[in-house]
Amino acid sequence: MRDRLIFIGQLLFTLLVAAFLVVPAVQSILAGVTVNYFRGIQSGLTLQWVFQVLDLYTGTILLSFVIAFATLAVTLVVGVPAAYALHVREGRLSRIVEEIITLPLAIPGLAIALALLLTYQGFSDFRRSWFFILTGHVIFTMPFMVRSVMAVFASVDIKTLDEGAASLGASPWRRFRDVIVPNAIPGILAGSLMVVTLSLGEFNLTWMLHTPLTKTLPIGLADSYASMRLEVASAYTLIFFVMIIPLLVAMQFFAEKEQKR
Amino acid sequence: MSASEGHGASVRIEACGKTFADGTRALEPATLEIARGETLVLLGPSGCGKTTMLRIIAGLELPDAGGKVLFDGKDMTSIPIERRNVGMVFQSYALFPNMSVSDNIGYGLKIRGVPEKQRAARVAELVALTNISGLENRRIDQLSGGQRQRVALARAVAIRPGILLLDEPLTALDAALRDRLRGELNRLLRALGITAIYVTHDQAEAMELGDRVVVMQKGAIAQIGTPREIYFTPQNRFVAEFIGAANIIEASIENGHLLLPGGRQAIGGDASMPAAVAMIRPETIHVVESGRAPLSGVIDSVSFIGDRQRLVVSGVSGKPLTIDAPNTVQARTGERIGLLISPDAVRLLPLEK
Q1: Domain co-membership, B206 together with B318
Q2: Is A167 at the interface with chain B, CB within 8 A?
Q3: Whole-prediction pTM value?
């Protein structure tokens, strides 16, 4: 009987904490499909706000994904070989490079953005294109890719595997393709997951770097909260949510599958 | 596989030393020659430089300036490992977890562009040779330690390397398995007739496998010789004590005899120096009746091992003497016994400072 009371108490507490976190999300989502938020749900449900957002922000949403996957592509192409090189080479220079790559973790996004603006404001074509935001995102997400790949390298003794493949005659490129990358898949997936979500959700840096024509999802969200009805902004949140959740689940799924292997 | 497959290269290393970036001297400059088809064992305690020497021969480390590595007389010093045509078995095996057993064995052939059909035939040949039939499609994490060791060996041999390099290949296995695989490995190396360089800290492995053994200590070569030479005629105290069991006795010499507390022991050969360090192997000491023997002492302890018994006898020399006696000898603790040692069995070692 006493155990049961304790259990019910714990259950209630858990539900309360969960509700504390979930209710605002549910409310925000509901607001996006309510005819008039101030009159409440009895004013009726509608998808008009969702369509309005899609109408206004399709370009922003698409650009956001383009930037996220371009960021992923760059961090993969640069980050994985960099992690390999940093892991295999001992020596002070490697450690210094590793520190430099990791630095953006400690520097506020605003500072990185300011540095980019100061340096490249003269290159107006570059400044105005989405490649400018891409540059910021790559700097910001690179440490996550490099770190998570290096963590896997350390756990599977990639250096000895590399030496093993070399002893069998494989050139550095073949070793990288046949042995290094396949054995780093869990780290690459985990890194990719972080890079894409961070890029999609990044606000600080992007806010500084964007132009009216190069906006990403979070910038559009801030924009809609600032300048439009609350229902429209909430519908925007709903769309953001619907887009990012399947992506997260899919990548989590791959990561788990790989770990079981 | 027939002996005609012998395809070894000869190896020569000249003045190869190794100093690491942090200033540690891992290897004093060493010169060494390994004949085609020979199995050379690098033996020594950990940190003696044996693995560094192997890695220099493999091409995984560069020797310090001035050092040279030659295969069949050709300078390979600056050639990376992937173009040296060596086969290597690593202590941790370094098998690729992302490939099956047969893909691991065939990887070197694939790199060399061997067509799939020939590759499969060669892999099958090695699977049979190393007794791992039935495991071809397994993943590496589904293999036992002994099986992994066989796969690693098959993979290294598949490419018909000029030189086979083995870095403590049996160390990760338990004792019984190690003994069995040692025998198999020995037969395999003989059958292949390949030049092999084998690193170990286990003197039993070195004795069984090596045509010659290089005993190393603190980054330098202490002695090079056949297993018999290093066992019977060690050149210094380190080699004598590292290889097998040894009684090391310090004594003065008079008229061709060692003067010991327990009597006088005749020595062979040149005995003109006033004092010496002598080595006597436990199995060369014979137990006899105490009355007629030139040496005598008192038994401290008797350990029955099975095929023999080990006695510790005090009062003969400064330190208690270890004796391996036949298991039929009657010996009791506290008993006084006589000892007989052939003059040939006493090996004089240089005095150390």
Answers
A1: no
A2: yes
A3: 0.79
| Listed residues B215, B239, B263: the one ending a domain | B239
CATH, residue B211: 3.40.50.300
Euclidean distance between CA atoms B178 and B176, whole angstroms: 5
Residues from B contacting A (CB-CB < 8 Å) are 21, 58, 60, 80-83, 85-88, 90, 92-98, 107-108, 111-112, 155-156, 159, 165
CB contact under 8 A, A182 and B82: no
Neighbouring CB atoms inside 10 A of B160's CB total: 15
How buried is B4 (Cβ within 10 angstroms: 0-12 exposed, 13-18 middle, 19+ buried)?
Answer: exposed
The number of C-alpha atoms within 13 Å of B94 and in the hemisphere containing its C-beta is 27
Nearest-angstrom CA–CA distance, A53 and A234: 10
- Model ipTM value: 0.84
Same domain for B7 and B155, yes or no, is: yes
Domain containing residue B182: 3-239
**Tens digits of pLDDT across chain B (353 residues):** 333 344 689 999 999 999 988 888 899 999 999 999 999 999 999 889 999 999 999 999 999 999 999 999 999 999 999 999 999 999 999 999 999 999 999 999 999 999 999 999 999 999 998 888 899 899 999 999 889 999 999 999 999 999 999 999 988 888 888 888 888 888 888 888 899 999 999 998 999 999 999 999 999 999 999 999 999 999 989 999 999 889 999 888 888 888 888 888 888 776 677 888 899 999 999 998 877 888 889 999 999 988 899 999 988 888 899 999 998 888 889 989 999 999 888 988 887 75
Say whether both B63 and B183 belong to one domain: yes
B151: left (phi over 0), alpha (psi -120 to 50) or beta: alpha
